[in-house]
Amino acid sequence: MLIFELSSKGRRGYRLPELDVERVDPRAYLGDYFREELKFPEVSELDVVRHYTRLSQLNYAIDTTMVPLGSCTMKYNPRINEELAGLEEFKDLHPMVEEQAQGTLRLMHELGELLKEIGGFEGISLQPAAGAQGELLGLLMTLAYHRDRGNTNKRKVLVPDTSHGTNPATASLCGFEVVTVKSNREGELDWEDFQKKLTDEVACLMITNPNTLGIFEKKIRVVADALHEKDAILYMDGANMNALVGLAKPGQWGVDVMHFNLHKTFSTPHGGGGPGGGAVGVSKRLEPYLPVPLVVKEGESYRLEWDRPKSVGKLLTFYGHTGIMLRALAYILHYGSELKKVAQYAVLNANYLKHLLKGLFLDPYEPSPRMHEFVLSVQNLLEQGVNAMDVAKALLDRGFYAPTVYFPLTVKEALMIEPTETESPQNLQRFAQALREILQLVKEKPEEVKASPKKTPVRRIREAEANRKPVLRASWA
Ligand SMILES: *Cc1c(COP(=O)(O)O)cnc(C)c1O
């Protein structure tokens, strides 16, 4: 139900006090901009509270259930960080002030230094508003680097076949030709195929580590050396840093540029489309090209540095999302030297859950060790007419959000499961039990699995149509 449908003429939730100044006609000031026919719902405060509380209950959320959505790191984020993000000293600061914004600049500087330390990088920018924008920045800097070096033939970007869609999309947006590199039987980048495709025309490789199969790319150092031999850049997609924080530093593997997803790894809740934080760390080679302004510390004070002749310029109107930076800084400082436990428990939980599901589904990469997530296939259920989407929908009826499905593209009927470090072993057991029940139902009554979900407010949605021809307008009288 739309809130407009609750509207009742003259009903109000709030009454303004009596005017104690002379009444004026807004038309005199607004002229043509004055719109009389604006239709607001006329509702009481209680109507509003009930409406939005009801809407919130229609959703799956980390506050009500586990969200094992692989590649997304939908962990629980401590509430205290939400309070910090709302501190008015930061929240209400005007983005044009600089000298008076010492606290905010210090926040940015300290977070930047910590992320450099965590990632093993020489330079950092907190500007990108999302992982995908971090990728854009990475490739813009790659372009600037090659232009600077007179590398006129660098027109290709290598992307593994397990990569996240944003990687090839970004490369193609930047005018590169995208060349796909196969993965091998172990689920890692195929070394032979990589060598074959690593020509002088390659500007960059975009790799995710651990990759989207949850498998660690053990050859990363030799891959870096091979790229550098050709004066090519190694971009690492850092969306999976939850498997590495505090344990390993990509900068030390020869990674030239990497985006962090502050909204995945560092305590900003996400899943509604933003805002996000895609901080980008760089090696010495790319440092001169970082976007302006950078936050620099001089003595005890901080300022914005604009004088960077090789910079790719500006990426956002201002400097990134302060609320997200506050959460990230608080999160990192809270853990301190214990930060590695985040990664250790994330990996432990994924492997425990994988163990609980052993033998129930196909595992195309069975012997390969997994990090913070793993990908299974339900291809064997196709005989009963049941696919990955059906299993995902059946989970919704059992009170769980579904894993990512049909990704990465290299696994047929894929379920990509990332439990994260914040779930208890008991929750993982419940989740495994729900999957076991679904498999039992597939044996007995596959049509029931195909008919799920039954308990959700809306049942099957025609997703492609909703995406291509969205109805974004409601009509009310
Ligand atoms: C989430 C994700 C991205 C994109 O990050 P956004 O912040 O959503 O733009 C890129 N690569 C991988 C592997 C991801 O999981």
Strand order of the largest sheet: 1-7-6-5-4-2-3
Bound molecules: pyridoxal-5'-phosphate
State the share of residues found in helices, binned by percent. Answer: 25-40%
Overall shape: globular
Mean pLDDT: 95
Number of helices: 16
**Major pleated sheet:** 7 strands, mixed
Which stretches are low in confidence, meaning pLDDT under 50 for 5 or more residues running?
none
How would you name the oligomeric state of the polypeptide chains in this document? Answer: single chain
SSE succession:
HHHHHEHEHEHEHEEHEEEHHEHEEHHH
Please state roughly what percent of the residues sit in beta strands, choosing from under 5%, 5-15%, 15-25%, 25-35%, 35-45% or over 45%.
5-15%
The radius of gyration computed from the alpha-carbon positions, rounded to a whole number of angstroms, is: 25 Å
- Based on DSSP secondary structure assignment, what is the total number of beta strands? 12
Class of secondary structure makeup:
alpha/beta
- The CA-CA distance between the termini, in Å, is 14 Å
